[in-house]
């Protein structure tokens, strides 16, 4: 029982990390960034390359090196997120939502199959596999890497929360989320802030990708697709556009999946998650923490 | 004395417009003729070359057209982004596949069940989510596509990962396509017969019905909801039922295409219904031109035939498709052949320059007695203002 809860929270913290990016971008420019899950996948692949180079030089791979790689991968994926926004989304700002959504699907496709062309369609084995001796806590088997990864995820989320709620740039983000035009009139550099949002969101997704790769030990070019869907589900459950909602939604989804897998079997896990999403939207479309959206004409 | 009242004549237009084109060059007639010529060309093709390869890829391409026409109702007319459209094809294909192989029904008899199954699927997925705005719908349909695929992969009745095999081709009251047909001394084998069936019944029905639906009352309601949902609700259109209707019709169309596909390939498996294929159909609609019948046909032919022509590039095609989607949206957001496309030869019709109106010089005498030498300046200013206003509105 406690094992189930622990597994759920562990998986949920990954979901939350990816869901935050979804929620941030949606909150600010009302765009569902379909490519977000693929940034997660790219994070895993970039860290795969960086780690390959590093273990070549240093000859050994361990947890501190992984954390260094995590930072590098975050910077790279963040930069990539900014680039994508610049190339694909910025020219379409102000065009119908449908066009932007289709562009996002196109970007997602491009990333997936570019990775497939570079690294091939078969799964790759990640050079570092984190596995430690399990500790028994309340009858659950918990490994040290799990605790470290969860701590990293929690730390990243805490930094982000401080950043958005207590800095000038964070305030600009919140202002744009409320009213883009008005904040432009008040002297906020909207383009810059949106770029920054993409950077942060993508960096977090990249971090989640690296951590998942190190934990599960294998990466492939389609790994971002399902996680993108799950993260969106998490964001919706928590109330999309709401930062705390994304975190909460990730944990809730992780727990749900963990229990669902236990009751229905692993092959029905994704069906359970998406079915829950549809059911949830029927009854509470704004999510747990989301407020009612009033459409203004 | 209403009878004796002076009837004011309508003001004459400032400029004489060129007469409407008539005859063969009128846009409507021209498109119909082009369509008919292509249709006849497709119909006589098996007499010219009937290699199984060509017949087979063309049949697939035609089924893609049927599928894309269905998605065109959802995406093009009603403006609902459906990223799991292939799921409806899966529902149709599996329904007919299972009913024919395990229950021994003929393909024709499975059609009512396919329609019912697709309506149910459409209501299940559209019912709860169409009350929300389009973003949710996009990702929920994506999830729905995955649900259908995983379910088909895990159930026993759908054959699990290996799918359903040995699906018979279409048969009508005891006579099946596999019997072949001798007509005027020419033997038609089952593949050619199926090709004709898809061409006449599938495409004929899909193209005519969907383009007529789009022009009817329901179609106009769809388009108004697509353009502005709030305003169309204010005009008395029920946005929810209108969208649900589009969704259900699209679903039934997808199911029909799935039934055709099951008959064509005689085997289906969950791997035929990956997200990839949903994206490809979407690609056909978007690249061709959302809401435009000729555009969607072009798009569907491109998506289904391009990999055959570019065999050595087939590894690259999904990457290429992704880039094309982005580029198309940035540079040609309405597609190759948009719904309001102007035929190339009509672009040559020039509308003569509007001469400055005579009235201007009459009011152009200023108060201090000097003549306003730039009499039509205010016209220009007005025009500029108008253009600016237009830009504002677009933004």
Give me a quick take on this structure.
The complex is a heterodimer of chains A (297) and B (395). Chain A is built from eleven helices and four strands, in the order ααααβββααααβααα.
Kindly describe this structure.
The complex is a heterodimer of chains A (297) and B (395). By secondary structure, chain A is mainly alpha-helical. Chain A is 74% helix and 3% strand. Chain A has one domain: Orthogonal Bundle (ABC transporter involved in vitamin B12 uptake, BtuC). Chain A has a two-stranded antiparallel sheet. In chain A, α2 packs antiparallel against α3 (63-89), α6 packs across α8 (190-216) and α10 (243-264) crosses α11 (269-283). With 395 residues, chain B is an all-alpha fold. Chain B has a two-stranded antiparallel sheet with strand order 1-2. In chain B, α3 packs antiparallel against α4 and α7 packs across α9. Chains A and B meet through α4, α9 and α11 of A and α4, α5, α10 and α12 of B.
List the SSEs and their pairings.
The complex is a heterodimer of chains A (297) and B (395).
Chain A: H1 2-29, H2 36-58, H3 63-89, H4 97-119, E1 124-125, E2 135-137, E3 140-142, H5 144-166, H6 168-178, H7 180-185, H8 190-216, E4 218-219, H9 223-238, H10 243-264, H11 269-283
Antiparallel strand pairs in A: 1-4, 2-3
Chain B: H1 27-48, H2 52-77, H3 86-103, H4 107-129, H5 134-154, E1 171-172, E2 175-176, E3 181-183, E4 186-188, H6 190-215, H7 217-227, H8 229-234, H9 239-265, H10 275-288, H11 293-309, H12 317-331, H13 359-363, H14 377-394
Antiparallel strand pairs in B: 1-2, 3-4
